[in-house]
Amino acid sequence: MRRLTVLGQDPGFSDRRGVVTVQVEIPRERLAPGPHGARFHVVDCDASTQTLYEPANANGEDPFADVTDVQRLVDSRLFHAQNVYGTAMETLCRYERGLGRRVPWSIPGGSLERAANGRGHVLKIAPHAFSEANAYYSRRDEGVLFGYFPSRAASGSKRSQTVFTCLSHDVIAHETTHAVLDGLRPRYTDPSSDDQAAFHEGFADVFALLSAFRHTRVVSAAFPDTPRSIPPRALTAESLRRSALTGLAEQLGAELGSIRGDPLRSSVQIQPSATLYTSAEYMEPHKRGELLVAAVMNAFLAVWAKRLRPLQGESGKQSVARARVVEEGAAAADHVLTMAIRALDYAPPVNIDFHDYLTALLTADHECYPDDSKYAYRQALVEWFGKYGIEPVREHHSPEPGTWSAPERPLSYRRSHFHSLTHDPDEAFHFIWENREALGIYPDAFTYVPAVNRSVKVDVDGFAVQETFIQYVQILGLEARELRKIGVRAPNGMPRTQALTLHGGGVLVFDEFGRLKFHVGSGVNSRKQTDRLESLWAHGFFRHERQTQRRFAELHRARAMANTRFREERW
Amino acid sequence: MATKKPTSVTIRTYAVGFGDCFLLSFKYPNEARHVLIDFGSTAVPKGAPANQLQRIAQDIATTTGGKLHAIVATHRHADHISGFATNATGSGPGDIIRGLKPDVVLQPWTEDPKAQRDARKATRTAQSGAAKLRALAALEGMHEVARAAEAAATDLREVVSKSVSEQLSFIGEDNVKNLSAVRNLMSMPGAERLYVNFGSKSGLERLLPGVKVHVLGPPTLEQSATIKKQRARDEVEFWQFWQRQGVAVSSGVSHGQRLFPRDVAAETPPHLRWFRQRLGEVYGDELLQLVTILDSAMNNTSVILLFEVGTKRLLFPGDAQLENWEYALARPEVRKLLAGTTLYKVGHHGSLNATPKTKLWEIFKNKSRTKSSRRLLTLLSTREDKHGHASDHTEVPRSTLLKELKSKTSLTNTLDYKAGELCRETLVKFGEPVQ
Fold it and tell me: Which of B237, B264, B278 sits opposite A257 (nearest CB)?
């Protein structure tokens, strides 16, 4: 492993020892100057001044291991490169560790006539891409671009007056997550439901916030004023929310509000209400994503508090050492983060909604940890999602309420070769073809298998959980008047001749014996399709269809400025 | 004054090209009283002489007989105020207007020199030198972004598409601070300066006896917060966002300040050329989006005025878009008033989002496919091929809106003017004075 010093949060985040830095452990790959490895290539190019800088070269070493002077870090271009590379790698590795396999990018694949056909291996990172308060992942440009802008508190040297988004863990983790999620589920950027529009942003926030708890020094610094020993009244979920989470929020919100608002602060402050999910205010993607963040973060706090209860003695009156409180917080965050990551494999590849994601969360955890009674992670998630009006999908034959159920109709395995099925998209398609009625898939839509993945995870017994995930996607072009034939209702007022493209798809999860455990999602002809069309119609998508080249750039700006659009009022 | 009510009003729609300039002349039995609503252009009509604005100013001077009663500057975009600019020799169009000694200069509350960067409502106190400077500084960030966008249109010409470059240049120019015009509006000799928001008194009533003037926008931040709770937390940050963004963008583009001047690479190696080119394009698109948002934000500071005489109602909304309109349109009594609109100045030169479709257009009850004395009158001051593109349905004027205007209203469209035509007149009669 390679150990690299990076900032725990950002240059303004400090404790008694000075700026909070941590050492990340990442695979020791061969590094060219940049740094440039097998997954990331840091290209220091600035569009505002039209400048290309020399690649940073530390020969893979860590020259900043003992530096405590924050100014030295902020002033060093070498450190900027190391920080952004180290944090992005740490993020990617966290996903790979959770999923038990490599994560692909979804980038076209280089300037050379798109030679890699959507499967480029190296994502570019521009740490000083432009002088502007924004940072985002762009599939089309095959990179993650970080801006820089003047600080609110102008003092000291020229560079200390600048906010570098490439020095913020929160921003790097968030943007790298967009890239990872796009690699795993490229169709999540398609126009679909309100939930899908919000999912990318909400999920990226969940990752950025939970991963802040990865190092105890960061958590510790988030509540600096508490004593070494913390009394029980300060250890309830509500108290932890006010101390640790709000402390972290204040540190984060100060400078980076211009990037995408203040997700942590606003999310943890949303008063639970089941009506929010259907309210107009929370239909805006950047607001809606905050509901996801609020539900997950509150569930995490509930588990954290629960983990601390046995430490308060039988009377419940004993104080707990601060270091232990932090330790338990880190453990709870790590578990919730693993669930959040693994859930992606159990989520439909097309048209996700929050109900699907909650069900995927519960299923992912149940597969490795059937007994939830100790810390009640799943119970906390069900409870908190419920408080925001989000219930799991109702399945009739689930092994546990709220999880996906096994397929109801018998399937034919006679003509399939299981070994091939674990890696070969053509074999996977063959299986789908043979079982299309049993799977309830519309037979005449264009259907393809974008990915077949194997994953190995270790369960609570210490045994390997081996699974194969086969994704399929369906696409059907038709006119509104033909919807009825496939059991989908056209939105009110849509012209009969309106041309439409329907997307559908699912994921088939096989166990280690090659038997189908779950079929998550559906083809083009589901009830969801009706909802999706309703949503798109309501948002004026068919009237003002336009190419959004860089949706994350726009989304972040909309968040920072709380921008709202009124499509129905346009001409 | 002998009479209390005007018998008619003549509205002159001047040929400013891409911009607005309307002269309202209210006819009283013994005199006429004149209100100038906006005077600016970012592109004069095709084939018009370079001194088109001077010619218009001169015509206004002649028509008004040397006395203007009020000026309304709906918002500070160049296409609405550039005509107020003066020059060193005192022969600018703004110098001519200045000589017409208006009694009142009406502007939105956001122009109030007392308004702070995080101002939430209009203030009505006298101006001091320092306050004046603060007011100018408040919009500085926006102007900086605009200036940088203009500069980028040239600097990034090699990397961005022609269309992006043209739009950057055009929108940038419209938003760049027109210091001369702003100063002139602030210092018209003898004029009372009024800064208004929804519901405030226009101050025009005493100049125009018998005319009720409703101010329907812009709302103050507090007013908009009541209808859009989710935006309230960010409104205060709004000015700061632009101020910082302005410094950020301009330090990079306009001043070319490199972060690490000693580390610049001598040349771009072949394997990085594509990405470098791409980054340039990205940045061009970014800036265009920024100035477009900024452009809308500025449009939404527009003063919206409704002149009411008897049953006749004349609506002048500047470039207001829905965010500005919302507060007014949420009120039933305002909607009722608007339903009977007699004359509508088409918002924002006919763009896709300045005539709220369901909330405003659909409630105008005087629309009609057949000509009649009651048919809705509309005024459109615009120029084609300057703003937006038909390919993404953003062209100005928007074709779908234009079609509606032509089929359901009696439209005065500056695009229909003959070469050299300076203005057209629209007469609205108020009938006999009511005793």
Answer: B237
